[in-house]
Structures are given as C-alpha cells and as structure tokens.
Amino acid sequence: MVAAFAIFGLFQGSLAAMIVGVLILDLGVQFSQVANQARIHALDPTARSRLNTIFMATMILGGACGSGLAGLAYSIWGWSGTCLFGAASAALALLLSRRR
Q1: For position 76, what pLDDT does the model report?
Q2: Axis-axis angle for helices 15-43, 48-98 (nearest 10)
Q3: What is the Cα–Cα distance from 17 to 67, expressed in whole angstroms?
Q4: Which long-range contacts (CB under 8 A, 24 or more apart) does 91-98 make?
Q5: pLDDT tens digit string along 9-52?
Q6: Helix (H) or strand (E) holding 40
Q7: In the predicted model, what is the mean pLDDT of the chain?
Q8: What is the count of structural domains for the chain?
Q9: Other CB atoms closer than 10 Å to residue 39's CB: what's the count?
Q10: Which of 13, 58, 84, 91 is the most buried (most CB within 10 A)?
Q11: How far is CA 12 from CA 25, 93, 98, in A?
Q12: Are 91 and 83 in contact (CB under 8 A)?
C-alpha cells in the first residue's frame, strides 16, 4: 500500500500510474482485510460473529477517520500531502502489525 501511494505521488497526472496505483492499493487492502480477519477469528472460534461485528465496526470507524484526515491533508498540502499521509498511515499500520 505504501508503494501505491508512492506511485500516486511520484507520477501525478498519469492515468496509467493511477490505474497501477489503484490496483496495488486494492490488493493491499484486500490482503490486509483477509489476514486481519483470520487473526481475529483465531482468537475464539465460538465468537466469530461477535468478533467480526467489532472488527467491521472498527474498520468503518477507522476508514471514516482516515477519510476525514486525508481530506484535511488535501486542503492544506494538496495531492502530495495526501499521498504522504496515505503512505505514512500504511507504514504505521505495517509497523503496528509487526509488534506482538
């Protein structure tokens, strides 16, 4: 996902770069979604429904907060700032996922 935001930032105005970046970003989001769901479902197989509800609610809340902050970044720093915010957010998520 960091690579997708790097592509967005480095090749601004390129339709081909936008397509490649969106594909990479979508793959990253899908992979992380599946990996995270597998992790939470392994916590307690008898509570899958409840865990999934909490997981999805948290994902929606996080997405809303991220969208709001990205809009703020765009209004202050433009497209480059938005790409930097996205890359920093993805890098932070990666670092946090490596902690155990």
Answers
A1: 97
A2: 120
A3: 22
A4: 91/2, 93/1, 93/32, 94/2
A5: 999 999 999 999 999 999 999 999 999 999 999 999 999 999 99
A6: helix 15-43
A7: 95
A8: 1
A9: 12
A10: 84
A11: 16, 24, 31
A12: no
